[in-house]
Design brief:
Helix content is 18%, strand content 27%. It is built from four helices and 14 strands. Strands 9, 10, 12, 13 and 14 form a five-stranded antiparallel sheet that branches. A three-stranded antiparallel sheet has the order 7-8-11, with no helix packed on it. It is of the alpha+beta class.
């Protein structure tokens, strides 16, 4: 198989075979991955902000998002008699260890969620990473909110369908080009939890995060690359001469 990566033409061969040992540890890890994949699509933009890329000894570069996936498999679960369970309180939006802003508090009144803290963050380009879930409806809202100078509160307008129902909230802060990252705070809020405070930023309406389509069991989701190959009528989508791309 020939392909182009970073301007270089590479050749890769097919493996001779595949052997699945299907050990107990493999089954445990696969079960964790299934549970993690129920959450990750809604948090992807936050995790890309909150986790730093990693370069392995082999020189292979791992994106921040995939670093977060590895951390989720290791840290977000608790053992139970029925097997490993995803613990919402263990979800981490960043790989940071700094403390949260002093006085951080959460409130909800009507359709508005408010976060407030004692004083503005002293970081350049500070951002709030926020995820909210309404468990009963299976819906999420996630946002990366840039904090202006002097900001010490943020308002987020939640979907109308969530009114009168409790929500779960995860929040963390990043800044200074990703060098400053806090730990993550998780809270479960009732339908009504007033919180006073001054003028807040980020009062725009938010949209429910739509989960990407998943293939049915035993099926596959057609990728954009395969669709492009079909549209090109067999021509190489990488522009290689005397090569053809066949749709799968």
């Amino acid at each position: 198989m020939n392909y182009v990566s970073r301007g270089r033409l590479l050749v890769r061969g097919w493996p001779r075979g595949y052997r699945d040992a299907n050990t107990a540890e493999q089954r445990r890890q696969r079960g964790r991955m299934v549970r993690v994949c129920e959450v990750l699509p809604y948090l992807k933009s936050l995790l890309m902000e909150g986790y730093a890329p990693l370069v392995k000894r082999s020189g292979r570069r791992v994106s921040g998002y995939h670093v977060a996936v590895g951390a989720a498999l290791r840290e977000w679960f608790v053992p139970t008699p029925q097997g490993d369970e995803l613990d919402c309180a263990r979800i981490r939006l960043t790989d940071g260890v700094r403390g949260l802003p002093a006085g951080l508090a959460f409130g909800r009144e009507g359709g508005v969620l408010r976060l407030a803290w004692a004083a503005p963050l002293p970081w350049r380009g500070a951002k709030l990473l926020l995820a909210v879930r309404q468990k009963g409806l299976g819906q999420w809202v996630s946002a990366v909110e840039a904090l202006g100078n002097g900001a010490a509160a943020v308002d987020v307008v939640l979907p109308r369908a969530w009114r009168g129902q409790g929500v779960e909230v995860w929040a963390a802060f990043v800044g200074s080009g990703g060098r400053m990252k806090t730990i993550t705070r998780y809270v479960a809020l009732p339908a009504h939890a007033p919180l006073g405070g001054g003028t807040a930023t980020g009062s725009g309406r938010t949209a429910v995060v739509v989960r990407p389509p998943r293939a049915a069991k035993g099926g596959r989701v057609r990728s954009a690359g395969r669709r492009r190959a079909a549209k090109l009528n067999g021509a190489c989508r990488f522009g290689l001469p005397r090569c053809r791309c066949e749709p799968c």
